[in-house]
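=== RUN LOG ===
request id: a7f3
mode: sequence -> structure
chains: 1
length: 161
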Amino acid sequence: MKSLRPLVLALSFAVLAVAALTVPAQAQDREVPYWAVLRFDEVNMRVGPSEAYRIAWVYRRQGLPVRVLRLREGWRLVQDHEGEQGWIASSQLRLARGVLVTGEGHADIRAEASPQSSLRWRAEPGVVGALLGCEQGYCEVDIAGRTGWIAENRLWGAGEP
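=== RESULT ===
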């Protein structure tokens, strides 16, 4: 019986190691479409799903939200707020909800989810932030550590992907 103990321990360790390696891989196999954000200040978008393809666009905006449309072996076909599509390595993306202020003129950031709520500040189109949640046509955002509510129709990255 003592001679089986090392074998049982070795098999148990092997099973745990395989499980630990497959869980992160499965976590990336999400149902598409879904939202993600750029992980770094500089991220390359390519015309195909490998580094062999030419770079179509270089994003220089950490936290910029993108819509993930397809998955392929460590690469993601994404769409940006202007409708441009291309491939980004999954390691360059973070599963998080981010938003981009869109539209014309400054967007009001309010204290509560209401147009009558007090104005906290205004954000220019192009500002990115973290999406905290949405209700009643407004979304709570965190922009550079400041939180407030903005009309959902002024945001790209809110709502269903």
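=== NOTES ===
Residues 7-27 have pLDDT under 50 and may be disordered.
The longest strand covers residues 65-72.
=== END ===
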